[in-house]
Amino acid sequence: MKEKTIDYMLRATWMAVTKMYNEEAGKKDSTMATGFALISIDPDEGTPSTALGPKMGMEATSLSRTLKNMEEKGLIERKPNPLDGRGVLIHLTPFGKEMRAFSKSVVLRFDEAVSEAVSEEDLKTFKRVAHTILELINAKKIYTTEKIT
Amino acid sequence: MKEKTIDYMLRATWMAVTKMYNEEAGKKDSTMATGFALISIDPDEGTPSTALGPKMGMEATSLSRTLKNMEEKGLIERKPNPLDGRGVLIHLTPFGKEMRAFSKSVVLRFDEAVSEAVSEEDLKTFKRVAHTILELINAKKIYTTEKIT
DNA sequence: CTTATTTACTATGCATGCATAATATTTTTT
DNA sequence: AAAAAATATTATGCATGCATAGTAAATAAG
User: Fold this and answer.
1) Burial of B55 (0-12, 13-18, 19+ CB in 10 A)
2) Residue B10 forms contact with A (CB below 8 Å)
3) How many Cβ atoms from other residues are within 10 Å of residue A147's Cβ?
């Protein structure tokens, strides 16, 4: 098998995970992003949407659309935040709580399957390398090209 | 720092790489997918597009749209394949060859930066784990949920 | 306290991924 | 050879990501 580049492996793996999650979610007329959001929302009290983005690693603008879709599906309600007139508090509906449990089970199953197939040490290395790549990019240590105008 | 799940790390890392590649490509009015395609196209002879998809890990349908955009940008020409009336052969234009070299340099720079920051052994482990996850998913070892109708 | 800045969204548009469907050809069956 | 199945490609639609721009409210500056 030909040696693949780092970016190829990252892309291929994430795409496979994405596809799997979307297929699982699709069985209940949901999606991957909705599932991730559900998991990040506190099931017991209103969650400020400002807290969700960082937790999920999602930009506010992407999150906003996801929440809109989720509200239309009847999974959440967006209520005004009494402490901040700009913000909203996200509340799960009963249906949302049910779907949250489902989403958690899908993620858990994936994590368990990986944990069975990969040693704890290798998994640690995997996460550490991923983290290093993230840092490299965030530190702008990769960017060198000049802007062509 | 809170322990992150495997899928979180995968997603965050790939999103960061995507953003970086798109920013680099954007400096020359290009995109990440176009760059990957350019790299996969043989600069010297017509490449059947059937060969590109598997090489890049891209579905035929996604590739088709990318190639259309690339043709509109003047990077490639799609010529009928004399050996198969259904297929096309992709040829790089001189501009396409120039952009191909640029794309390769961006990917190379990323690979070098990662190689400097991560030991060869860790990188090997990283790729091996990624491969294992891919296999797990492809073997459908994750899917267990029932379809709700 | 009025003005300027920052913050929290929301709306849109483009890029890119997959799914599905349609079309044209080739290959396989019979 | 004619019919059936497979293959190559395109067109579209939806999901999700980022970028940009606009609005409203809170905070900081003066």
Assistant:
1) middle
2) yes
3) 8
CA A104 – CA A39 distance, rounded (Å): 6
Amino acid at B56: M
List, in sequence order, every beta strand (DSSP E) within chain A.
Answer: 47-48, 76-81, 84-92
SS3 content of chain B, % helix, strand, coil (to 5): 65, 10, 25
Q: What is the mean pLDDT of each run of 10 residues along chain A (149 residues)?
A: 86 96 96 97 95 94 97 96 95 97 96 95 97 92 52
Helix ranges restricted to H, A27-93: 32-40, 49-56, 60-72
Reported pTM? 0.91
Nucleic acid strand C within 7 Å of A60 CB: yes
Cα A141 to Cα A96: distance, rounded to the nearest angstrom: 41
Q: What are the chain B neighbours of A136 within 8 Å (beta carbons)?
A: 113-114, 117
CB contact under 8 A, B144 and A109: yes
CB B8 within 8 A of CB B66: no
CA of A66 to C1' of C8 (A): 16
pLDDT in tens, B11-61: 999 999 999 999 999 999 999 999 999 999 999 999 999 999 999 999 999
For residue A1 the two structure tokens come to: 């098998």
